[in-house]
Amino acid sequence: MRAKKITKAIIPAAGLGTRFLPATKASPKEMLPLFDKPLIQYVIEEAAAAGIRQVIVITGRGKRAIEDHFDVSFELEEFLKQNGKKEELKSLRKISDLAEFCYIRQKEPRGLGHAILCARHLIDDDPFAVLLADEIIDHPVPALQQMVDVYHERQAPVIGVQHVAKTDVKQYGIIDGKPLSDSLYRIYDLVEKPAPNEAPSDMAVVGRYILTSEIFHYLENTKPGKNNEIQLTDALQEFAHAKEMYGLILSGRRFDAGDKLGFLKATVEMGLKSPEVSKEFRAFLKGHSL
Ligand code: G1P
Questions:
Q1: pTM for the full predicted model
Q2: For atom 7 of ligand 1, which residue has the closest CA?
Q3: Quick check: is 3 in a domain?
Q4: Residues 6+ apart with CB under 8 A from 217
Q5: Contact in structure between 207 and 134 (CB atoms under 8 Å)
Q6: Which letter, b or e, does each residue of 237-275 get, where b requires 16 or more Cβ atoms within 10 Å of its Cβ?
Q7: Is the C-beta atom of 229 inside 6 A of ligand 1?
Q8: pLDDT digit string (tens) for 201-244?
Q9: Domain of 222, in residue numbers
Q10: How many domains does one find in the chain?
Q11: Which phi and psi angles does 70 have, rounded to 5°?
């Protein structure tokens, strides 16, 4: 039997963004502009390029700017039309046409696993993707597309992973698996943010997941774990103990844009790649005696 197409994605965006205070005091972390686009637009473009048609954003208090960004801005469009600004108009239209958007409020900050559970009624029995907006993965083949291909081949959940430094494992979900090829692993276990000496490997979950609706059953029964939050990793661990699950080492340069240094690195990278400013920006950077 052919696996169902993946057309739905959940973007959890209810977090408080405490790593980026004070910038995120009154504006959502997901709306921080990385060069000329907010962070969340990068992951939604990645999702759309991989075939996602319906995007479910999990939001919370103070996150309205996200809804406005992906909505049609009638006044702005009229203004651009009347002033002959065709290119700007086209780029605005592209944003609201990326997908069909739904918003669900997570009323209490009870963790990533709980945020996913909030979308259960919109997922129904379909397979779906989860993308975390603060992980930017830059590659000609969008990271989610790399995973969709594996999902169709294996017909089981696929988690995006990358090698990290041993000292950094405590910031991630870490998998334990058996290699099936250079980049594909069968996952047998996962641990959320282990101490370096307790990590089963150096392969970290990097904010891209393809899941099946069976995960909701595990999430429902997941008790609060690390930081007293309902962790997606804990539900995945139970799943992996019982069923097939795969880890794919994603090709691409990854930036943890939810962190100040990671965000700066991503900004420099996007600036260097932009045809609009790269030449002058490169010259500016060269002028800095580093
Ligand atoms: C979350 C997940 C973690 C994953 C990470 C990737 O943690 O819980 O397993 O490795 O995202 O960015 P967070 O960074 O939200 O604390």
A1: 0.95
A2: 172
A3: no
A4: none
A5: yes
A6: bbbbeeeebbbbbbebebbbbbeeebbebbbebbbeeee
A7: no
A8: 999 999 999 999 999 999 999 999 999 999 999 999 999 999 99
A9: 8-287
A10: 1
A11: -95, 5
